[in-house]
C-alpha cells in the first residue's frame, strides 16, 4: 500500500471529520436535493457526500460502478469510500454471503472537486440462483445505459479466497463489458485478514498466477477493502486504502461510455444469435442423419426379407446354361439357370443351378412348403 506520513493521514482524518455525521435514515434524499447538499457539506479535497436512491432513472455525473459476486462486500466498500464505517453507511450491509443489494443504488461522491455517482449494483454471480444472476446482468445493463456522462471507474470487488472460478468471473465480465472496460477497472479485495490489509507485500503473496496475470493486464490497479469487523473508521490503514482507491479513480483520463458498452452488447447478441442458429442447424442435421440411418436400416431389412422370401413371377426372364434367355413360365425341371456371379481370373462368370422343383403359389395367400430331399442318379444329394 502507498506509504503515507503520519501528518498526512491526520490531515485526511481531519478533513473527513468535517463531513456528514454518522449515517441515519434521515440522510436519504432525492437526486434533486443532491447538488444543494453536496455544495453545503463540501469542505475539503476527497470528501464524500451521499444519498441513496431506490430507483435509478438518470445520472448527472460520471459513474463509479461497484460490481462483483452477490454478498461479496460491494456495499461495505461503498460505505468506506463515502467516509462511513463499512457496516454503517448509506448502502445496506449484513454479516452473511446472501445478497443484500437487489436493486442498483446510488450515492453522490466527490473526489478532488469532481462529482460522481457511486453505484452499488446487485450481485452478478449468485451461486444459489442462476436466474437471479441473469436478472442482475439485465439490471446492470440498464444502469450502464443510464450513465449518459460515462463511467469513470469500474471497481470489481473480489473475495480474497478466490479460487479457480475467478477465471470464469473475469471472462464473464470481459464478455459482458468488453475489452475496453479493463482500461477503467480496479480490483478491490474483501474479507482480507489484518496482516494482508496492513502490508501490501503480504497480500501479494496470496495471489495465484491467474490473478497476477489479470492484475498485470490492468496495470496492477488493486486495493483492499478493510474488513469492517477488524478495523474502525479512524484507523490509519482505512484512510490509506480509501485514498488509494480515490487516487486511482481520479487518474483515469477518460470514461468508459455507453457507446462502448452497446457496441459490445450488439456484437455479443449477434454472436449469441449466430450460435443459436448454428445449434438449430446442427440439431436439424443430426435429426436428418438419424432419419437417413433409419430409412437405410429399414430398406436393408426390407431387401433382406424380400431376398429371403422371394418368388419369381411367371414373366421373370432367366438365363439358361446355353445362354438362351426365357421366361420363368417356360423353365422345366432339369434346366440349369443362372443363379449367381463369381470372379475367375479377373473375369466375371455366371454360376448355374439345376431346377429340381417348380411350385406355383398365390401371392395373396400364405403358402407353406415342405422340404424336399432328393438323390440324383449320379449319387449327388440335395434339398
UniProtKB/TrEMBL annotation:
This is AIG1 family-domain-containing protein. Its cofactor is Mg(2+). Residues 17-52 are annotated as: Disordered. Pfam families: AIG1. Residues 261-308 form a coiled coil. It is a single-pass membrane protein. Residues 28-37 have a biased composition (Acidic residues). InterPro entries: G_AIG1, GIMA/IAN/Toc, Hint_dom_sf, P-loop_NTPase. Residues 64-215 form the AIG1-type G domain. The lineage of its organism: Eukaryota, Fungi, Fungi incertae sedis, Mucoromycota, Glomeromycotina. One of its GO terms (molecular function) is hydrolase activity. One of its GO terms (cellular component) is membrane. It is found in: Membrane; Plastid, Chloroplast outer membrane. One of its GO terms (biological process) is protein transport. The keyword Plastid applies.
Amino acid at each position: 500500500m502507498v506509504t503515507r506520513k503520519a501528518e498526512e493521514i491526520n490531515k485526511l482524518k481531519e478533513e473527513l471529520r468535517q463531513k456528514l455525521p454518522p449515517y441515519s435514515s434521515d440522510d436519504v434524499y432525492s437526486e434533486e436535493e443532491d447538488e444543494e447538499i453536496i455544495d453545503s457539506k463540501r469542505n475539503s479535497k476527497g470528501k464524500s457526500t451521499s444519498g441513496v436512491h431506490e430507483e435509478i432513472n438518470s445520472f448527472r455525473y460520471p459513474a463509479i460502478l461497484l460490481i462483483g459476486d452477490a454478498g461479496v462486500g460491494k456495499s461495505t466498500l461503498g460505505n468506506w469510500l463515502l467516509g462511513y464505517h463499512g457496516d454503517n453507511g448509506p448502502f445496506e450491509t449484513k454479516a452473511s454471503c446472501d445478497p443484500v443489494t437487489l436493486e442498483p443504488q446510488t450515492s453522490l461522491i466527490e473526489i478532488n472537486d469532481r462529482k460522481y455517482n457511486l453505484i452499488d449494483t446487485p450481485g452478478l454471480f449468485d451461486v444459489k440462483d442462476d436466474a437471479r444472476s441473469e436478472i442482475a446482468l439485465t439490471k446492470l445493463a440498464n444502469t450502464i445505459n443510464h450513465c449518459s456522462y460515462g463511467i469513470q471507474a469500474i471497481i470489481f470487488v473480489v473475495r480474497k479466497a478466490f479460487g479457480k472460478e475467478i477465471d470464469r468471473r473475469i471472462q464473464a465480465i470481459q464478455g459482458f463489458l468488453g475489452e475496453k472496460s479493463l482500461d477503467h477497472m480496479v480490483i478491490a479485495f474483501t474479507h482480507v485478514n489484518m496482516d494482508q490489509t496492513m502490508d501490501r507485500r503480504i497480500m501479494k503473496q496470496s495471489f495465484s498466477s491467474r490473478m497476477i496475470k489479470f492484475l498485470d493486464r490492468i496495470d496492477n490497479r488493486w486495493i483492499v477493502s478493510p474488513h469492517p469487523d477488524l478495523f474502525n473508521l479512524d484507523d490509519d490503514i482505512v484512510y490509506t486504502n480509501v485514498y488509494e482507491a480515490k487516487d486511482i479513480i481520479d487518474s483515469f483520463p477518460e470514461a468508459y461510455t455507453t457507446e462502448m458498452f452497446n457496441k459490445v452488447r450488439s456484437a455479443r447478441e449477434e454472436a449469441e444469435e449466430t450460435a443459436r442458429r448454428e445449434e438449430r442447424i446442427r440439431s436439424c442435421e443430426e435429426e436428418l442423419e438419424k432419419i437417413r440411418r433409419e430409412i437405410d436400416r429399414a430398406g436393408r431389412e426390407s431387401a433382406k426379407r424380400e431376398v429371403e422370401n422371394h418368388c419369381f413371377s411367371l414373366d421373370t426372364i432367366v438365363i439358361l446354361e446355353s445362354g438362351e434367355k426365357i421366361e420363368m413360365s417356360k423353365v422345366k425341371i432339369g434346366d440349369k439357370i443362372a443363379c449367381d456371379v463369381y470372379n475367375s481370373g479377373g473375369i466375371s462368370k455366371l454360376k448355374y443351378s439345376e431346377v429340381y422343383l417348380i411350385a406355383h403359389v398365390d401371392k395373396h395367400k400364405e403358402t407353406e412348403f415342405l422340404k424336399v430331399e432328393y438323390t440324383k442318379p449320379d449319387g449327388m444329394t440335395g434339398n
